[in-house]
What does this fold into?
Amino acid sequence: WEALLILTVGFIGALAAVYQFFYLNLVGIKVNRQLANLASLNADNPLGRVLLSFKGARAPSAGDEAEVVELRISEAVLRELPSLERFQSLVKLVVAAGPLLGLVGTVLGMIETFQSITESGSSDPKLMAAGIGKAMIATVLGLGVAIPLLFIHSALVSRSKRVIQILDEQSAGLLAELLESRLRDGGRDTQTAAVGA
It folds into this structure.
């Protein structure tokens, strides 16, 4: 039963990882397409949704403080994080649990081996070898689940961080652009007032 449990946990982790891997690839393609065309925002990708939430109905008015605008942008980026980081903690848990479940299987196998030695009253090497071999299978399965998922987890984190970095860069750029335009407009208003006086 130990082997079945390890394989089931590994399958669930691998299924979640593969789903998220393809999702992040699709999101990456859409975000790159949006980066190439920032003039026409599309809500089918996280970058488009973040920028649309800023430029859309909730766009900041001229009286909004920079901190308020920054909080609105941060809120829009934070809304995108759960789908970008989905299943990463589950995959990380499976990576950690795989070897531990293998260790449990090994210990249980060794207990069975020692019990059979005690019951038979002899230390027959054939009896011990069969029991120890059975116990080691659980360890190999646990490591076989953990090692590939460790690399997949690293790839998932890397892909999601790349998209999040693009969201942060573009939203910070948008905020800087807004503040620069306000400074320019404020400078013009001051010059106009000085000329009028």
The helical segments are 2-36, 46-55, 66-84, 88-120, 125-196. Residues 173 and 196 are 34 Å apart (CA to CA). The two ends are 89 Å apart (CA to CA).
